[in-house]
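Subject: Interface between my chains keeps coming out wrong

I've been trying for a while to get a sensible model of this assembly. When I model each chain on its own everything looks fine, but I need the whole thing in one frame so I can look at the contacts. Pasting all components below, labels as-is. Any help appreciated, I'm running out of ideas.
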Amino acid sequence: MAGFWARLSAGLAKTRNTITERLQEIVPLEGKVREETLEDLEAILIAADVGVGATEELLEGVRSERVGSVADLKEALARRLREILREGYAPLAESVEPPLVILVVGVNGAGKTTSIAKLAARYRKAGKRVVLAACDTFRAAAAEQLEVWARRSGAELVRHQEGSDPAAVAHDALQAALARRADVLIVDTAGRLQAKKNLMAELGKIYRVLNRVRPDLPQETLLVLDATTGQNALSQARLFKETVPLTGVILAKLDGTAKGGIAVAVQRELSLPVKLVGVGEGQDDLEDFEPDTFVSALLGEEG
Amino acid sequence: MLESLAEKIQGALRKLGSKGRLTEADVKAALREVRLALLEADVNFKVVKGFIERVREAAVGEEVLGSLTPAQQVIKVVRDELTRLLGGGASRLTFSPQPPTVFMLVGLQGAGKTTTAAKLANLLAKQGRRPLLVAADIYRPAAIKQLEVLGTKLGVPVFSQGESYPVVLARLATEKAKREGLDPVIIDTAGRLHIDDEMMAELERIKNQVPPQETLLVVDAMTGQDAVNAASAFHERLGLTGVVMTKLDGDARGGAALSVREVTGVPIKFVGTGEGMDGLEVFHPDRLAARILGMGDVLSLIEKAQSSLNEETARKLEQKLRREEFTLEDFRTQLQEVRKMGPLDQILGHLPGWGQMKKMPGMQVDEKELVKVDAIISSMTAEERLRPDIVDASRRRRIARGSGTTVQDVNRLLKQFNDTKKLLKQLGRAGKKGGKVSLPLGPFGI
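Reply #2:
Try treating it as a single job with all components included. I did that and got this:
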């Protein structure tokens, strides 16, 4: 976990500094917490993309505790953030009956394919047999992109021609995974904006095709969220969840200066836990999400 | 979907309307709504703060408070300020006096650079230029291939040299363009983090090697508060000349545009909508301001209609309406004209209040329904189209079979047609009485 801590805190250093600095700026260390202080705190949380709703709820809670000092304020805030993020949190499913099928969905450019590559590399490293399904048959060269990653990690790829029915690819890939007794099947899908009805319907079909073969499949349906995304992430989570039963979130691109506060908003409003975080471009830069560590880093509490 | 900001302001001020004049406190309450709405639209919180200050100053002036419609005045102030922040008028690409002109696209991973590069090439080719696309993203697997596929589709040449160093590649590409008279050169660079020093240095070297006329930052419309950090870092190192805002066809408010414009001072030149190669439009600040306010974008709609609707057809249609000779054939022509304007939900998205309407039952638009209607009418004889009354049960069965639909579908269409006809009759009468029938526009007529 040392690697995770180092990378995540490096990734979140900016957030941490901002929040700590801002807090110290607005509240003298031993000073009393005033109403204005809470208003400034509101701005700080919003600047981390936590969202207006979650921010107000957090502030309401802190206010009701009548905290006096900055330290108490931070502690109260951290505790509430941890509570939100812990709710319903579960690590990635360990398949009871193979294959473990992971369906990966998200908007264009969120980081689906890269996240899948990392996930495949992780399972390959654990000695698992991995099949990848190239269901993004729409974007030019999407299958080629996945193919390169598959070769690098030693995963097997099932693909059709560009423009073919993605549900058919999913079906074939699942049959292949079953026949080859693969441990893991990861299904890559085309990026789609959540407001596009037809594309969302297509996604529903991919899910049903998998589900019809065996009712426990897919065990995981993960939404990839770009950590730089703002409040639109809520709309993404909501509409994708209406289409397919999401089991969690992969928070990608957390290695920039983005704060990833949307994770809090998404968990709070949709009970959708973050399961994995992407913290770099290497194949190993995908880690299990740890609510405690995330909050500590967010609020600048070392170790 | 968010409640429209314009509605929120009106709501906040409506309570006070009956009391007569507004006070500063009333304006303050309304501005709190504005602040929250802007934050929900992902406008950076620092930008919001300055914005609210300026609006407050403008809004507590005598003119607004003494006005008979203070709520609308406040909305107008907000909208004007938004438009001003977004940069006033539209800003266009500039070309170098010495061809080839070089455009370089830069941005974070997943912003949409490759798609934008292809769309830009398509747009410029349509204007009669001969662009060259340069695949300088040698890092993301298959990025080169992606651009090549798009280039082939568009008939635009793509320059690539495997995994040659992007700086060398850019130079070779401009040399080729000069030799072959290709202009402009559009360089698609790899996505990178603004804090990745080595990768940012690479862009600086490309920039020094082939001075680009325009260095365009591609920004995802869904970006949150961090947009300002990335944009200012790119601007500091590269001296941006423009911004392209992508993925505006979703339901994102696009508040990031405001932040980016404010912190860099660089104009937004284009907006990207959809994955089709035509989805790149010149940016109009006033229209995005209306979108952030949730007031719809009637101007874009009118423009679309003007470029798509055949004037002759429209005139004929109007005559028929007046003479109450509207037939199924006309109905179909009308549908086809509307469909030429683009995907239906995109067209309707321009309408004020559509965000709200969409949620109501029965308001969901299904493109497939239109295809069905087209098929049903096509399966009718000429006589049936002119005189739908003669379509009896047996004819309905035949039409359903011929169009691959059901009798229920045919019934529904005929009923819809009759309803439309009735509606048109009423409108026609209203028109004759001299009352002009017009589209309901925004709160102050736009």
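Reply #3:
Confirming on my end. Chain B is about 55% helix and 10% strand.
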